[in-house]
């Protein structure tokens, strides 16, 4: 996105397709393109709100971008992304309910989604994604971000370096050798006891960059960004969603889908077994960034962490930094 497509408030850059007002010390943020992916600047409302360190805010969004029929029976990607957006709005407001509200004009559609969603959960009619193949092995042709991620999870040297990163500086994490990548996090309608597939999708599917269960039973979820060239503030939106999703679906033994065929793709069976044995204690979200991250994040790491850690779900967030030169030296 070019500089001309950004606007600024309190020195925080945000998409020109988002409207923000500050009226009598209350912020109003309107998302005009709620069907944009959360990785895009057009829809990273969580990131902007956290960066602004708001204490009194109302979220608005444009409902005319898509038409949802009230059921979870669509394969339209725009609707799938919109439903995930509604979920993000609801969970973000719940996480910070003391100071975040939803605009009155949007509460009808939010409640409509929430009621249908919670009923489907209660009736066990929705399920997480399951990996159906191995994560890609490292290749020289991989894009840099994927290459870094793969080196850290598919090589012993990479795993040792990630463990070293997590032990360095407080708060420290002690990872095991079981470190995986690309765990899917789509959501599906299984009202007819179906296995999740594209024909019964509810949310668009993303993937956890890196994940592991540490030595004391914390589910650790890493959102990785390459050292230079992907310095988006939206990394906050991504990790917040992934951790909330993980706590709600990947840590729920009723909703975590049991694969019929026992093949341990991307560590899924180990996660499943740990959940069934009640071995997961907490969810931790780790921003795994290089030295050249977004300037706002670089300047405000402590404030961002502190505010994120006031969430009411008990999810903990932290920043960890890698050295790209160490990554380049890892032999594959």
Structural notes for this entry:
- This protein is α/β, with parallel strands linked by helices and 332 residues long.
- 33% of the residues lie in helices and 21% in strands.
- It has nine helices and 14 strands.
- The chain has a five-stranded mixed sheet with strand order 8-11-12-13-14, with helices on both faces. A four-stranded mixed sheet has the order 3-4-5-6, with helices on one face. The protein has a three-stranded antiparallel sheet with strand order 7-9-10.
- A hairpin with a 2-residue loop joins strand 1 and strand 2.
- Helix 1 crosses helix 6 and helix 4 packs across helix 5.
- The longest helix is centred in the N-terminal third of the chain and has 19 residues.
- It starts with 5 loop residues before the first strand and ends with a helix.
State the shape. globular
User: Describe the biggest sheet?
Assistant: 5 strands, mixed
**Sequence of strands across the biggest β-sheet:** 8-11-12-13-14
User: Which regions have little confidence, pLDDT < 50, spanning 5+ residues?
Assistant: none
Radius of gyration using CA atoms only? 19 Å
Specify the structural class.
Answer: alpha/beta
Give the helices and strands as they follow along the chain.
EEEEHEHEHEHHEEEEEHHEHEH
Tally of helical runs? 9
Secondary structure: helix percent: 25-40%
Strand tally? 14
Strand content: 15-25%
Residue-averaged pLDDT: 90
N→C terminal distance: 34 Å
